[in-house]
Amino acid sequence: MNLLQVREMMLFTAEKMVESEPELTALDQVIGDGDHGIGMKRGFAAIIVLLQNPNFNAIDIGDLFNQIGTKLMTSMGGASGAIFGTFFRAGGKSIAGTTDFNAETLSKLLNDGWQAVYQRGNAKPGDKTMVDALAAAAKTATELTSAKLTDALPKIVESAMQGAENTAQMIAVFGRAKNLGERSIGHKDPGSVSMAFILKYMNDYLQTA
Amino acid sequence: MRKPKKLLNDLNNVRHEVMQGLVYAYNGKLTAITDYCAVYGNHIQADQVVIISGGGSGHEPTFAGFVGQGGIDGCALGEVFTSPSPDQIIEVTRAIEKGKGVLFLYGNYSGDGMNFDISAEILAEENIVSKTIRATDDIASAPLSKIADRRGVAGIMFLYKIAGAAAQLEKYNLDDLYRVVNKANTYVRTIGVALDGCALPQSTNFNFELAADELEIGIGIHGEAGLRRQAMTSSDDIVEEMIDRLCADLPFNNNDRVCVLINNLGALSNTELLIITRKVGIELDRRGMISHDVVVGHYCTSLEMSGFSISLFKLDDELQHLYDLPCHTLGWRK
């Protein structure tokens, strides 16, 4: 994919994330304080404005993701803004100079983004956070770096969705859900669902483009 | 089921309208950085370390209502119950920092921690030196052995008081300011009780519900689950248990000088609050503790939550001197 195609993919993803707000809100009302969907909507609505602006300019694909991360960080606030912003900023920086987005660059974006998220928030796989979806996606991406992006991304999405699904069995150790302790079992982490959704919508665009 | 009822305007503009209300109420003593939803006081002097706080809206007058002489210097306002973003924190810091450094002082929540840490890292690249203290006064949020995991709640206003007096009036440098506020943080303890939940502006439901004959001990200021739910009982019974828990935690002892905060979380009647206050006095007297100052009212709210919290702050000579200096903020004048 070239820069223009990635930009269109991320615009489509942002629109779908805004549409997902009620579903994410419903998940967070059970386990958090109900603001996750609203925050994601605020962030991705800002991404739509950013990417639709005719004056928007990204030097390369890495810069595009970096700018998306910066916009998420500054428009969302909260833990989600810091985490998703850090993911895209660090992931974008790790593929600076990229002009062709493929399975290898996606793997680097996911893995380096994951490491940066870990350094920011200290969440490990199993802690019932977005890292459970991200880590699962990054591990699958690492195994598929030589595949075509159209073949790799569906499998990465599958891993991320499974990673999000698995959070239902975990006890929360971060954020407001932490205080629920074992009462958090049975409910998916909304952040992990958001992470999986982002990849899912990227793939939806890729498969129809 | 009862539904939330709120008198608001644009749901996407809540924090900005709160900021505009603050600016009018401060009547010339507060400047807004409108595009970044941040504020700072007009009292700041060139030779002081600045104190910057921030946090989600919904707790008014916490956090921004404590900007002023003898209080904090600047504040970033997040969306309701959502931490501010780094650009807000960075802009208010750039606007007021005087080359003496900045103390970031806020409640211990993961979102606030990450956004302030990102800000501190970016500001360090601009040679702005900062130190960070996260208020951890809520004893119900984690055991004493994990005190660094505890959340910050109403007791943060005592830290603001000490920090403001030390930085603005006694001109502590950044290292000394950090030391004294850190000490104060270890001397503050809070516990809350809720009779009913609260609702985010965008939400059609309360964030938690209690039965008509139920209350919750140890509630957080965003409705975080407390220690337990139990049947309604008398005010005196609840206050006695809260004071027991607070005193056992630090611990507070016979002859300790303490400042006491009896805080309305939102919708409890002031009638009930004074009946609670009466019992707090009885319990502290019975333990031989000296009530140096007693503060009663709305200081750290949780939207329309019905409930209250009790905070105790132990003084030593240095803290008492700083505490007794005046402060002029919207939330607290002394």
From TrEMBL, chain A:
Source organism (scientific name): Frischella japonica
Domain DhaL: 4-204
One Pfam assignment: Dak2
Regions annotated as coiled coil: none
InterPro entries: DhaK_L_YcgS (IPR012737), DhaL_dom (IPR004007), DhaL_dom_sf (IPR036117), Dihydroxyacetone_Kinase (IPR050861)
Gene that this sequence comes from: dhaL
One of the record's GO molecular function terms: kinase activity
Kinase keyword on record: yes
Keyword terms: Kinase, Transferase
Protein name: Dihydroxyacetone kinase subunit L
UniProtKB/TrEMBL annotation, chain B:
Pfam families recorded: Dak1 (PF02733)
Signal sequence extent: none
Top-level taxon: Bacteria
Keywords: Kinase, Transferase
Domain DhaK: 10-332
GO molecular function: kinase activity
Protein name: Dihydroxyacetone kinase subunit DhaK
Organism, as annotated: Frischella japonica
Lineage: Bacteria, Pseudomonadati, Pseudomonadota, Gammaproteobacteria, Orbales
